[in-house]
Amino acid sequence: MMQALSNMQNYLWLIPALPLLGAIVNGLFGRRLSTAFVSALAISTVTVSSVLSVMAFFAVRLVAHGAPMVTSLGSWFAIDRYGVAMNFMVDPLSSVMILVVTIVSTLIHIYSVGYMKGDPGYHRYFAYLNLFVFAMLVLVMGDNLVLMFVGWEGVGLCSYLLIGFWFTDEEKAIAGKKAFVVNRIGDFGFLLGIILLFHYAGTVDFAGLREVAPHFDVAAGTLTVITLLLFLGACGKSAQIPLYVWLPDAMAGPTPVSALIHAATMVTAGVYMVCRLSFMFALAPVTMGVIAGIGTLTALFAATIGLAQNDIKKVLAYSTVSQLGYMFAAAGVAAFSAGMFHLVTHAFFKACLFMCAGSVIHALSGEQDIGKMGGLSAKLPDTRFTFLVSTIAIAGFPPLSGFFSKDEILWLAFTSRNPAIPGLNYAVWAGLAITAFLTALYMFRLYYMVFTGGYAGHAHPHESPKVMTWPLVILAAVTMVLGFIGLPAWLEHPVEKAFVAVHGLFSKAPWSYPNFGHFISSSFYAQGSNFGFAEFSHAAEIGFTLFSIGIAVAGWYTAKRLYAGRTSAVPERLAERAGGLYRGAVAKWYVDEIYDAIIVKPFWAVSRALHQLVDVFIIDTLMVNGPAYIAQGTGYVLKFWQNGNVQRYLAAILVGAGVVVYVLLKG
């Protein structure tokens, strides 16, 4: 086994290559293959990638002891003495990411067999899904920014293809275009940041940038601009203010696509990029303050919208935007390990929530309005149980995974110290604490409205097939135990002692407790950074933990009183009293309408004016049709004389000669 792990470095390229193989075969030949073969190929390629990812994870941990493993596919291109190589790297950070991407993607592929059954685009769907996984793995495993950007654009393309998968429906096609266009705005900033970084640092390799970072010979303002441009790219991919508007519309695609985008792939790319370049961001405290502020505002803003939505997928979509804000807030206070920990836990419980939503929609023949649901607990027992587990996790109840990751972010946000913006940590903590309450409220609202009370719809609910429910059970089971790899400091020592004691009953090997933060923190360092965390006692940390639990309990209790059994009229009365606030939340605070008024419509007006001026008048009229009209008019004039009539020719000659004689005599 250890020998196999030692040789793992030579086979890292297979992790992204296998999903690419599935995408190529199904994309080119899927129409001529059976649906069973198409799905088997797609699932098997991602499954083998997940097995290799597990091996790579343990190889980094046990063989390389946290050192990066790199496999090279050769040089890509060179500019003077600078070159970019096709290198794939696995270190503690990327090893965790490839585990999340491949394992969650495998379960979504399996679930899709039942969800997409009978769809005429079945082979195309699995080709796109495999291609999505390939692009995300390239993004995660690339050892330089240019290769990361290739994967970055790849997931953007795949999101366009999958969100607009049912492109014959105009609304769904528009949603795909919206995601593509909004992401181009962020990608433009990301690309500018890469170019500036290459100009000043002379390299785009992560290893080279880490060496250069402590001695980066640029003004503080220049580094701030570079990191802000990189963060703009992250705002696009990971749906932060002001570029979050594409993600809720991404619900237009099949529900498994929503699970894949929202849980393990595209939306986590921005968080991963910021954490990957933590050594650079930590040297720009102003940028870090912006990241923390934007993350907190996004978390709180999206939570208020999720509280008033009635589309089951839209509630979860705004929940994703909000939880991504949590991750960015953690990165913005230099709690990179905590942000990554929440990324990992969120990937599993959010994938489970979306797939549960898909199971509900499947059971109700496409219905997505929670006002037309209710009472589904008995009809969909497996879906209800796994949905409840994931709801408890995202709400922040112990001992499920979401509690540990959210609690760590709240604690580190409170204790962090940004040298450029004193007091920011308290504002971040307060915003995230309010968001935690709203999260518990809107998620239990969703649970109670879907699964309790009387059924308010017209379909005949039925549980989904096992191929759809078993992935839910696995995700829920992981959600139950995953939090224990990232315990708070006051729990680590007693748990580690218990772990070693229990393990000693079965083995004489000296194993230590597999703490997530200790393992992944080797990927983060910032020599020269002034960021720090205030020291508090374990008693204070325990007090904050109890307060976090109290927030979750308050959110649950409020939702239970308002929505359990769907018999209370209080929600309607509250909506009436809230008036404009409630209508604003339902309308998503009119952000799309504002963007449409101040950006989209003026842009279209300018585009139409330029079209008329440049395309129609200058190109078509003056440059193309104008010369043609002149030539045509000249031809009409000349045609009158050049018609083969000899007498007319002689008359013209006589007239011409007469004119010449007259001119000569006058002269």
Blueprint (SSEs and pairs):
Layout: H1 2-6, H2 14-29, H3 35-63, E1 69-79, E2 82-90, H4 92-115, H5 122-141, H6 145-163, H7 170-201, H8 206-212, H9 220-237, H10 246-249, H11 255-263, H12 269-276, H13 278-281, H14 285-306, H15 312-332, H16 336-363, H17 381-395, H18 401-415, E3 416-417, H19 424-451, H20 466-481, H21 489-504, H22 516-520, E4 532-533, H23 538-563, H24 570-578, H25 580-586, H26 591-641, H27 646-666
Antiparallel strand pairs: 1-2, 3-4
Helix pairs in contact: 2-3, 2-5, 3-4, 3-5, 4-5, 4-11, 4-16, 4-20, 5-6, 6-7, 7-9, 9-12, 9-14, 11-16, 14-15, 14-19, 15-16, 15-18, 15-19, 16-17, 16-18, 16-20, 17-19, 17-20, 18-19, 18-23, 19-23
Briefly summarize what is shown.
The protein has 667 residues and is mainly α. It is built from 27 helices and four strands.
Q: In terms of per-residue confidence, which ranges show pLDDT below 50 for 5 or more consecutive residues? A: none
Shape descriptor reads: globular
- Largest sheet: number of strands, sense, barrel closure: 2 strands, antiparallel
Number of strands: 4
End-to-end separation: 111 Å
Based on CA atoms alone, the radius of gyration comes out at: 30 Å
Determine the strand fraction and express it as a percent band: under 5%
Average per-residue pLDDT, rounded, comes to 87
Strand order of the largest sheet: 1-2
How many alpha or pi helices? 27
Secondary-structure content class: mainly alpha
Fraction in helix: over 70%
Number of domains: 4
